[in-house]
Amino acid sequence: MRSLLVLLPLAAPIAGTAQSVVSGGGGHHADATTRITYTIGEPVIATAGASNVVLTQGFHQPWADISTLVHDTPANTSVINVYPNPVSHTLHIACEDAADAQQYFLHDAAGRVVNEGRITSAITDLDMEAYASGGYILRVLGNDDTTLKSFKISITH
After folding, report:
1. Is the pTM of this model over 0.90?
2. Residue numbers of the domain that contains 52
3. Interstrand relation of 47-49 and 54-56 (parallel, antiparallel or unpaired)
4. Considering 63, 96, 121, which residue would you say is the last residue of a domain?
5. Is the pLDDT of residue 19 over 50?
6. Per-residue pLDDT for 43 more than 60?
7. Cα gap 97→106, rounded to integer Å
8. Comparing C-alpha atoms, which of 147, 149, 151, 148 is closest to residue 128?
């Protein structure tokens, strides 16, 4: 009994400590009988449910994923590549037929245009050293201002 009383105060701080984390990963898996959605490191704040709906308060709601990617035009036949990706200094836009691609737009993660220009040759170089590390979207537009191709660009310094 005495050893239990000695160990009890040691266990109390552990039970009362909550973690605070920012999650960077997770997923959703389902089969015929089981469904699980998880986030690595996310604490459960609150859960509410009705007959067939369960809502967990927090930022991990798999049904609410919003895509901001601009899709390519289905009839696109132009061959356009960008390299290297990830990039730290100079990004190259290589167009097989430079006459097809007229201009480019570089968007930051918030969707703002941070750079734009004309494509005048088979390889166009962009200086990426002035931009912060992170994810960007590069859109290449054709003669009729439709998106020929879009790329996810990762800048690392």
Report:
1. no
2. 17-63
3. antiparallel
4. 63
5. no
6. no
7. 20
8. 151
Q: Do 114 and 84 have their domain in common?
A: yes
Q: How many CA atoms lie within 13 A of 150 on its CB side?
A: 16
Whether residue 139 contacts residue 152, with contact meaning beta carbons closer than 8 Å, is answered with: no
pLDDT, the chain, mean: 74
Amino acid at 83: Y
Domain-embedded: residue 51:
yes
Question: Does some domain include residue 11?
Answer: no
Residue from 152, 88, 91, 82 nearest 125 by CA: 91
- Which sign does the torsion angle of CA 129, 131, 137, 138 carry? negative
Residue 85 and residue 137 in contact, taking contact as beta carbons nearer than 8 Å: no
Region of 140 please: left (phi>0), alpha (psi -120 to 50) or beta.
Answer: beta
Give the model's pLDDT for residue 35.
75
